[in-house]
TrEMBL record:
Biological function: Crystallins are the dominant structural components of the vertebrate eye lens.
InterPro entries: Beta/Gamma-Crystallin, Beta/gamma_crystallin, G_crystallin-like
UniProt protein name: Beta/gamma crystallin 'Greek key' domain-containing protein
Residue ranges of domain Beta/gamma crystallin 'Greek key' in the record: 16-95
Keywords of the record: Eye lens protein, Repeat
Gene Ontology MF terms: structural constituent of eye lens
Any Pfam family: Crystall
Length: 112
């Protein structure tokens, strides 16, 4: 049993992700550690990501549909290099171990 939320969120099963509209972690940002079925409510594009804890699974469409992009803990200053010139990240589940869509899975490498 966890006694405080901060300790609970630092466990590997609960990723902490920061999305940035601009490359190199610039522009507006959105920090998340919960399911995000529709990221359009937070930003229109995503060009860099920082995975602070755990792993991250991103989807190119809302509600966990479309190609999947798996990101390990680390920094991704130019997400378009990984996504093939796309800036359309639309959803992100809390538990990346749950595969919600059988479509393409791409593994991205960032810097630690």
């Amino acid at each position: 049993m966890y006694h405080d939320m901060d300790s609970f969120l630092h466990q590997p099963a609960y990723p902490k992700i920061v999305f940035f509209e601009g490359k190199n972690f610039k522009g507006r940002s959105c920090k998340s550690s919960t399911d995000c079925p529709d990221l359009r409510t937070f930003f229109t594009r995503c060009n860099s990501v920082r995975v602070e804890n755990g792993n991250c699974l991103l989807y190119e469409m809302r509600y966990y549909v479309g190609n999947q992009y798996f990101l390990k803990k680390g920094e991704y200053p130019d997400l378009q290099q990984c996504l093939g010139s796309k800036d359309l990240i639309r959803s992100c589940p809390t538990d990346p171990n749950v595969q919600r869509c059988p479509q393409g899975l791409f593994v991205c490498s960032g810097r630690l």
